[in-house]
Amino acid sequence: MDIAFADVGSHKVVRVMGDVDLYNVGDLKRAVFELIDEGEVESLIIDMASVNYIDSSGVGALVAAQKKMKTQGGKFGLLALTEDVLNILKLATLDQFFKIYESEAALP
Amino acid sequence: MDIAFADVGSHKVVRVMGDVDLYNVGDLKRAVFELIDEGEVESLIIDMASVNYIDSSGVGALVAAQKKMKTQGGKFGLLALTEDVLNILKLATLDQFFKIYESEAALP
């Protein structure tokens, strides 16, 4: 995975190139949080056009980055999701959002 | 759409039967919020086994119910989602969770 930065209008765009998983999510977090900690980014956009797979640690990093940006009053968005990543995020965010049980027998 | 109630262990289960849309979401909200407002439900479970379609007003009602339950320190979950409703919720919660842009040209 490689990371590059670009300014697009008022947005700071972080281009992620390659898959994001437990083994390289630290690099992504470091890059993104350094940027956020500088406190000068009004709108952080993660460009995912070149990402075909992201695991739950990567989703967690995106969620954490969004949370931190919003805490600072900034904006956060995802750009150009591939079909595969879109599907992973759909399921991951649904799981984060609602607790879902398959049957009454599965209720705690 | 019809609504029925059941107690399953420590859970109050609200069984929704039929599709949820702008025209009947008020009935669902009334039933669910009356239950929540009584303040005696520790865990509210919405049984969606007999729902094949839910529109954005219905998703909004579920989100609002969950929020209110959590504010009261209670639990909230969805039970037995049909494939179609699962897909609708995946997209709706992803949209609620992240702002997603298809291209740089779409950035605000």
Automatic annotation (TrEMBL), chains A, B:
Pfam families: STAS. NCBIfam families: ant_ant_sig. Residues 1-108 form the STAS domain. It comes from the Bacteria. InterPro entries: Anti-sigma_ant (IPR003658), STAS_dom (IPR002645), STAS_dom_sf (IPR036513). PANTHER family: ANTI-SIGMA FACTOR ANTAGONIST TM_1081-RELATED, ANTI-SIGMA FACTOR ANTAGONIST TM_1081-RELATED-RELATED. Coiled coil: none annotated. SUPFAM superfamilies: SpoIIaa-like. PROSITE patterns: STAS. Gene3D superfamilies: STAS domain (3.30.750.24). Belongs to the anti-sigma-factor antagonist family. This is Anti-sigma factor antagonist. One of its GO terms (molecular function) is anti-sigma factor antagonist activity.
